[in-house]
Specification:
The protein has about 80 residues and is an all-alpha fold. The chain has one domain. Helix content is about 60%, strand content about 0%. It has four helices and no strands. The chain is globular, with a radius of gyration of 14 Å.
Length: about 80
């Protein structure tokens, strides 16, 4: 559960709905970081473009990206 206000899936419209739908198709869910940015379309658009370039257009293999994410999350004591 988030501590900040976010826009739930059923209330998303326009570009936000398109980003939520694309996230659902790509990941099977909408990542919380995207939900956290749902009130700021400019920031959400920029994050979506950046993450797409890093995660899906970079030189790392998916397994390498996951390993890096796991290590960083563990170091940050992030539960996911």
């Amino acid at each position: 559960m988030t501590w900040i206000r976010t826009i739930p899936d059923p209330e998303a419209t326009g570009e936000l709905k398109a980003i939520y739908d694309a996230s659902q198709k790509l990941y099977g869910f909408v990542p919380n970081i995207r939900r956290a940015l749902s009130l700021n379309p400019t920031a959400l658009r920029a994050y979506t473009q950046l993450s797409g370039a890093v995660y899906h257009g970079g030189a790392l293999q998916p397994e390498e990206r996951e390993m890096i994410a796991t290590v960083v999350s563990a170091l940050n004591r992030c539960h996911y």
